[in-house]
Amino acid sequence: MATRPTPCTPALKFQELPESELDRALDLAYLAFHEKPEAELRAHHKELLRGCTRVGAYDGDELVGMVSALPFTLSVPGGELPCPGVTFACVAPTHRRRGALSGLLAELFARCTAQDWPIAALWASESVIYGRFGFGEGTRGLTVEIDSTRPLALRIAPDDRPLRLLDPADAPARLAGLYDSTRADRPGRINRTRAWWAEEWLVEKDEEDESFSPPRVVALGEPAAGYVVYRTKRDDDAPGLVRVDDLEAESPAVAAALWQYVTSIDLTAKVRAWGRPVDDPLLLFAADRDQVRVTAGFPALWLRLLDVRTALLRRSYAAPVDVVLDVHDAHLPANSGPHRLSYSSEGGAAYEPTHAPADLSLAVRDLAACYLGGTSPVSLVQAGLATEATPGAAARLAAALRTDRAPHTVDGF
Fold first, then answer.
1. Quick one: pLDDT at residue 207?
2. Annotated binding residues, as ranges?
3. Which residues have C-beta within 8 Å of that of residue 9, sequence separation ≥ 6?
4. What pLDDT does 9 receive?
């Protein structure tokens, strides 16, 4: 693809970042993120970048910015879509506020649309930045803490099938089927390859806190009806901590058994689970909510609709709808303007340009927030972020976009 100079900063060029410059790119990323990883982690990052779509910002021959996209697919209501995972987005401190990030994302968006990738996603290091580029809060997460100095009080009976401790090397093959079934059941989940399991979930040394144990993997049932991936930490001056990284279950009773297990581990006093879904059944079947507390809630995966029409046509709908949407997208003008979204069980979905007056007007970032079912269009109207010209239009759209389970993502990248 041709180099794209940005009009406001003619000195900067935006072009493919070749594989020969991966070490240079990592040096830039570590400068921007104030990191100094060990050789093993650096090698892992280099391998990740090798498999990415990569764009560099150049000031002459100097690499001053970069952005990459991992080749994911994402579960959406009724199916899945190609969804590049935007990562390693950074600009040299000497080149801030010169349009580098704008140019990088414009080039990346162009490459994604050329590949017919209708959506993209990222985890935002600074959430205030990416809304300007059309990303909306696609999923949210909760941090949950459990006092495990006493048995976990439950309102339901846990599944009594035996638990098995798995060798992490065997876990991907044993657990992938169950994880894949959760992707069909809940929007917002990325595909996990065998390598992703091994290098992101089951790596022996935790890159963020080396004081934690290697990963422990426990499954219930054969084949697995549920599993938990966790690490432990015990200090001389503090009670032991169990950190739950991932817990999936095909039924509430299986989930109850897994939570009961992690809260009963000897020499520990607290369980902390980061990135749980906002509708986690634990929050309902826990008998004592003073024992099980939500300590934080946060935006998780940010979603960008690169091709609004394709994205809307390739998801399912929970109710009939016929509404004219006026979407505003300053970065990808092809998405803008009034379009009629319609769906019926007989005729399927359609999204076509129209000259009819808009029933509902909103920014593309806010439509992205609604896309997986995590945000209601009614809430946008109530917050002053969408304009409803036709009474009831937001409610009709909300009913159509509704999902049975809240969107959820725990895979960071």
1. 82
2. 89-91, 97-102, 125-126
3. 98, 99, 100, 103
4. 47
Query: Which tens digits make up the pLDDT trace of 79-113?
Result: 999 999 999 999 999 999 899 999 999 999 999 99
> How much is the pLDDT for 237?
73
For every residue of the chain, which 3-state class applies, written as one string? CCCCCECCECCEEEEECCHHHHHHHHHHHHHHHCCCCCHHHHHHHHHHHHCCEEEEEEECCEEEEEEEEECCEEEECCEEEECCEEEEEEECHHHCCCCHHHHHHHHHHHHHHHCCCCEEEEECCCHHHHHHHCEEECCEEEEEEEECCCCCCECCCCCCCCEEEECCCCHHHHHHHHHHHHHHHCCCCECCCHHHHHHHHCCCCCCCCCCCCCCEEEEECCCCCEEEEEEEEEECCEEEEEEEEEEEECCHHHHHHHHHHHCCCCCCCEEEEEEECCCCCHHHHECCCCCEEEEEEEECEEEEECCHHHHHHCCCCCCCEEEEEEEECCCCHHHCEEEEEEEECCCEEEEEECCCCCCEEEEHHHHHHHHCCCCCHHHHHHCCCEEECCCCHHHHHHHHHCCCCCCCCCCCC
Q: What is the CA radius of gyration of the chain?
A: 23
Q: Which residues of the chain have pLDDT under 50?
A: 5-9
Helix axis angle, 364-371 relative to 393-401, nearest 10°?
Answer: 40
Per-residue confidence (pLDDT) for residue 4, from 0 to 100:
53
Cα→Cα distances 29→23, 43, 108, 339, Å: 10, 14, 17, 40
Q: Are 32 and 73 in contact (CB under 8 A)?
A: no
HSE of 266 in the Cβ direction (CA atoms, 13 Å)?
0
pLDDT in tens, 320-358: 999 999 999 999 999 999 999 999 999 999 999 999 999
Say what the pLDDT of residue 125 is. Answer: 83
Q: What is the pLDDT of residue 6?
A: 46
Q: Which pLDDT belongs to residue 93?
A: 95
Binding residues for acetyl-CoA, as ranges, are 89-91, 97-102, 125-126
Active-site residue list: 130, 413
- Can you give the pLDDT at residue 154? 98
Q: Which domains does the chain have, with CATH numbers?
A: 12-117 (3.40.630.30), 141-299 (3.40.630.30), 308-401 (3.30.1050.10)
In this predicted structure, what is the pLDDT of residue 10?
59
